[in-house]
Amino acid sequence: MHDYMSQSLLRLFELAFNKNYPRLNERLKEIIVKQLNDVKEKLLEHVLEILDMERRVFTLNHYYMDTVNKIKEKNKKENNADNQPSIAASASVNFSKVAVLPNLKTSTTSSTIAYASVSNEAQAAMDIQIALHSYSKVVEKRMTDSITQACYYKFITKCALKIDQLLSTSIPSSQLLQYMREPHKQTVLRNKLTHSIQAYEEALQLGQTYM
Protein backbone atom coordinates (compact mmCIF):
# COMPACT_ATOMS: atom_id res chain seq x y z
CA MET A 1 0.00 0.00 0.00
CA HIS A 2 2.83 2.40 0.89
CA ASP A 3 4.72 1.69 -2.35
CA TYR A 4 1.57 2.08 -4.43
CA MET A 5 0.65 5.41 -2.81
CA SER A 6 4.22 6.70 -3.19
CA GLN A 7 4.34 5.91 -6.89
CA SER A 8 0.86 7.33 -7.50
CA LEU A 9 1.32 10.62 -5.63
CA LEU A 10 4.78 11.29 -7.04
CA ARG A 11 3.54 10.55 -10.54
CA LEU A 12 0.60 12.93 -10.12
CA PHE A 13 2.96 15.54 -8.70
CA GLU A 14 5.25 15.33 -11.73
CA LEU A 15 2.30 15.68 -14.11
CA ALA A 16 0.68 18.59 -12.29
CA PHE A 17 3.59 20.71 -11.05
CA ASN A 18 5.68 23.16 -13.02
CA LYS A 19 9.14 21.81 -13.82
CA ASN A 20 10.77 25.24 -14.14
CA TYR A 21 11.69 25.23 -10.46
CA PRO A 22 13.78 22.09 -9.83
CA ARG A 23 14.80 23.02 -6.28
CA LEU A 24 11.20 23.62 -5.26
CA ASN A 25 10.17 20.38 -6.96
CA GLU A 26 12.72 18.36 -5.04
CA ARG A 27 11.74 19.98 -1.76
CA LEU A 28 8.04 19.23 -2.28
CA LYS A 29 8.83 15.64 -3.25
CA GLU A 30 10.77 15.24 -0.02
CA ILE A 31 7.73 16.46 1.90
CA ILE A 32 5.47 13.95 0.14
CA VAL A 33 7.86 11.05 0.81
CA LYS A 34 8.26 12.06 4.47
CA GLN A 35 4.50 12.30 4.94
CA LEU A 36 3.96 8.84 3.46
CA ASN A 37 6.71 7.37 5.63
CA ASP A 38 5.12 8.91 8.74
CA VAL A 39 1.75 7.45 7.78
CA LYS A 40 3.37 4.07 7.23
CA GLU A 41 4.91 4.11 10.72
CA LYS A 42 1.62 5.10 12.37
CA LEU A 43 -0.28 2.45 10.42
CA LEU A 44 2.26 -0.21 11.36
CA GLU A 45 1.84 0.66 15.03
CA HIS A 46 -1.93 0.43 14.64
CA VAL A 47 -1.73 -2.99 12.95
CA LEU A 48 0.61 -4.32 15.65
CA GLU A 49 -1.85 -3.10 18.26
CA ILE A 50 -4.66 -4.96 16.48
CA LEU A 51 -2.57 -8.14 16.38
CA ASP A 52 -1.78 -7.78 20.07
CA MET A 53 -5.50 -7.45 20.88
CA GLU A 54 -6.21 -10.63 18.89
CA ARG A 55 -4.11 -12.64 21.35
CA ARG A 56 -7.20 -12.81 23.54
CA VAL A 57 -10.08 -14.86 22.18
CA PHE A 58 -13.08 -12.57 22.02
CA THR A 59 -16.11 -12.06 19.79
CA LEU A 60 -19.69 -10.88 20.05
CA ASN A 61 -20.36 -11.54 16.40
CA HIS A 62 -23.30 -13.86 15.73
CA TYR A 63 -21.38 -15.18 12.73
CA TYR A 64 -19.37 -17.38 15.12
CA MET A 65 -22.32 -19.41 16.42
CA ASP A 66 -23.94 -19.38 12.98
CA THR A 67 -20.83 -21.03 11.57
CA VAL A 68 -20.65 -23.54 14.43
CA ASN A 69 -24.29 -24.55 13.98
CA LYS A 70 -23.93 -24.73 10.22
CA ILE A 71 -20.91 -27.05 10.43
CA LYS A 72 -22.57 -29.29 13.01
CA GLU A 73 -25.71 -29.52 10.91
CA LYS A 74 -23.64 -30.40 7.86
CA ASN A 75 -21.74 -33.10 9.75
CA LYS A 76 -25.01 -34.50 11.08
CA LYS A 77 -26.47 -34.78 7.59
CA GLU A 78 -23.31 -36.45 6.30
CA ASN A 79 -23.30 -38.95 9.17
CA ASN A 80 -26.98 -39.77 8.60
CA ALA A 81 -26.32 -40.26 4.89
CA ASP A 82 -23.39 -42.57 5.63
CA ASN A 83 -25.39 -44.63 8.17
CA GLN A 84 -28.44 -45.16 5.94
CA PRO A 85 -26.94 -47.92 3.70
CA SER A 86 -25.52 -49.86 6.65
CA ILE A 87 -28.81 -49.65 8.55
CA ALA A 88 -30.77 -50.89 5.56
CA ALA A 89 -28.39 -53.82 5.02
CA SER A 90 -28.50 -54.79 8.68
CA ALA A 91 -32.26 -54.55 8.74
CA SER A 92 -32.67 -56.89 5.78
CA VAL A 93 -30.41 -59.51 7.38
CA ASN A 94 -32.19 -59.29 10.71
CA PHE A 95 -35.61 -59.61 9.08
CA SER A 96 -34.51 -62.84 7.41
CA LYS A 97 -33.35 -64.07 10.77
CA VAL A 98 -36.72 -63.21 12.27
CA ALA A 99 -38.41 -65.42 9.67
CA VAL A 100 -36.22 -68.35 10.64
CA LEU A 101 -36.26 -67.73 14.37
CA PRO A 102 -39.71 -66.53 15.38
CA ASN A 103 -38.75 -66.28 19.06
CA LEU A 104 -36.15 -63.52 18.37
CA LYS A 105 -37.30 -60.16 19.69
CA THR A 106 -37.28 -57.46 17.04
CA SER A 107 -37.01 -54.69 19.61
CA THR A 108 -33.52 -55.86 20.58
CA THR A 109 -32.52 -55.95 16.91
CA SER A 110 -33.81 -52.46 16.19
CA SER A 111 -32.11 -50.98 19.24
CA THR A 112 -28.79 -52.53 18.18
CA ILE A 113 -29.13 -51.08 14.67
CA ALA A 114 -29.97 -47.54 15.78
CA TYR A 115 -27.00 -47.22 18.15
CA ALA A 116 -23.69 -45.81 16.86
CA SER A 117 -21.02 -45.36 19.51
CA VAL A 118 -18.84 -42.20 19.52
CA SER A 119 -16.28 -41.71 22.28
CA ASN A 120 -16.31 -38.60 24.41
CA GLU A 121 -12.72 -37.82 23.38
CA ALA A 122 -13.58 -37.96 19.67
CA GLN A 123 -16.65 -35.78 20.15
CA ALA A 124 -14.69 -33.26 22.25
CA ALA A 125 -11.92 -33.09 19.63
CA MET A 126 -14.51 -32.52 16.90
CA ASP A 127 -16.16 -29.73 18.90
CA ILE A 128 -12.80 -28.05 19.47
CA GLN A 129 -11.99 -28.21 15.74
CA ILE A 130 -15.35 -26.71 14.85
CA ALA A 131 -14.93 -23.92 17.41
CA LEU A 132 -11.39 -23.08 16.22
CA HIS A 133 -12.44 -23.11 12.57
CA SER A 134 -15.45 -20.87 13.26
CA TYR A 135 -13.44 -18.43 15.34
CA SER A 136 -10.70 -18.25 12.69
CA LYS A 137 -13.36 -17.22 10.16
CA VAL A 138 -14.55 -14.46 12.49
CA VAL A 139 -10.99 -13.21 13.03
CA GLU A 140 -10.28 -13.34 9.29
CA LYS A 141 -13.28 -11.15 8.51
CA ARG A 142 -12.53 -8.79 11.40
CA MET A 143 -8.85 -8.38 10.46
CA THR A 144 -9.66 -7.85 6.79
CA ASP A 145 -12.15 -5.09 7.56
CA SER A 146 -10.06 -3.43 10.29
CA ILE A 147 -6.75 -3.32 8.43
CA THR A 148 -8.31 -2.34 5.11
CA GLN A 149 -10.28 0.45 6.76
CA ALA A 150 -7.18 1.66 8.61
CA CYS A 151 -5.15 1.73 5.37
CA TYR A 152 -7.84 3.73 3.61
CA TYR A 153 -8.20 6.16 6.50
CA LYS A 154 -4.46 6.74 6.96
CA PHE A 155 -3.30 6.82 3.34
CA ILE A 156 -6.35 8.29 1.58
CA THR A 157 -8.44 10.31 4.02
CA LYS A 158 -5.61 11.71 6.16
CA CYS A 159 -2.84 11.84 3.53
CA ALA A 160 -3.72 11.83 -0.18
CA LEU A 161 -6.84 14.00 0.13
CA LYS A 162 -4.97 16.56 2.25
CA ILE A 163 -1.55 16.50 0.58
CA ASP A 164 -2.27 19.76 -1.27
CA GLN A 165 -2.89 21.57 2.05
CA LEU A 166 0.31 20.12 3.44
CA LEU A 167 2.35 21.26 0.44
CA SER A 168 0.82 24.74 0.63
CA THR A 169 1.75 25.24 4.28
CA SER A 170 5.00 23.28 4.45
CA ILE A 171 7.22 26.04 3.02
CA PRO A 172 7.02 29.52 4.57
CA SER A 173 6.78 32.45 2.22
CA SER A 174 10.17 33.66 3.43
CA GLN A 175 11.77 30.44 2.12
CA LEU A 176 9.67 30.11 -0.99
CA LEU A 177 11.75 32.61 -2.96
CA GLN A 178 14.90 30.79 -1.92
CA TYR A 179 13.61 27.50 -3.36
CA MET A 180 12.26 29.13 -6.52
CA ARG A 181 15.52 30.92 -7.18
CA GLU A 182 17.87 29.05 -9.46
CA PRO A 183 20.93 27.38 -7.90
CA HIS A 184 24.02 29.48 -7.40
CA LYS A 185 26.08 27.26 -9.68
CA GLN A 186 23.62 27.72 -12.49
CA THR A 187 23.66 31.48 -11.95
CA VAL A 188 27.47 31.54 -12.20
CA LEU A 189 27.40 29.54 -15.43
CA ARG A 190 24.75 31.83 -16.88
CA ASN A 191 26.82 34.92 -16.02
CA LYS A 192 29.90 33.38 -17.63
CA LEU A 193 27.92 32.54 -20.73
CA THR A 194 26.48 36.06 -20.89
CA HIS A 195 29.97 37.55 -20.47
CA SER A 196 31.35 35.30 -23.23
CA ILE A 197 28.53 36.29 -25.59
CA GLN A 198 29.17 39.99 -24.91
CA ALA A 199 32.93 39.53 -25.52
CA TYR A 200 32.27 37.78 -28.85
CA GLU A 201 29.85 40.54 -29.90
CA GLU A 202 32.38 43.24 -29.05
CA ALA A 203 35.09 41.36 -30.95
CA LEU A 204 32.79 41.01 -33.94
CA GLN A 205 31.93 44.70 -33.93
CA LEU A 206 35.61 45.59 -33.61
CA GLY A 207 36.49 43.32 -36.49
CA GLN A 208 33.81 44.83 -38.71
CA THR A 209 35.28 48.32 -38.22
CA TYR A 210 38.61 47.25 -39.75
CA MET A 211 37.06 45.48 -42.73
How are the SSEs ordered, and which strands pair?
Layout: H1 2-16, H2 22-53, H3 62-100, H4 106-114, H5 120-157, H6 163-170, H7 173-180, H8 184-209
Description of the structure:
With 211 residues, the protein is mainly alpha-helical. 83% of the residues lie in helices and 0% in strands. It has 8 helices and no strands. It has helices at 2-16, 22-53, 62-100, 106-114, 120-157, 163-170, 173-180, 184-209. α3 (62-100) packs antiparallel against α4 and α3 runs antiparallel to α5 (120-157). The model is unreliable at 91-116 (pLDDT under 50).
Structural key phrases:
single chain; 211 residues; mainly alpha; 8 helices; 83% helix
Task: Explain briefly what this protein structure is.
The chain is built from 8 helices and no strands. The chain is mainly α.
Shape: rod-shaped
Strand-residue fraction?
Answer: under 5%
Broad structural category: mainly alpha
Given as residue ranges, the uncertain stretches (5+ residues, pLDDT < 50) are 91-116
User: What's the number of extended β-strand segments?
Assistant: 0
Helix content: over 70%
Span between N and C termini? 73 Å
The radius of gyration computed from the alpha-carbon positions, rounded to a whole number of angstroms, is 40 Å
Helix run count: 8
List SSEs in N-to-C order: HHHHHHHH
How is the biggest beta sheet arranged?
none
What value does the average pLDDT take? Answer: 81
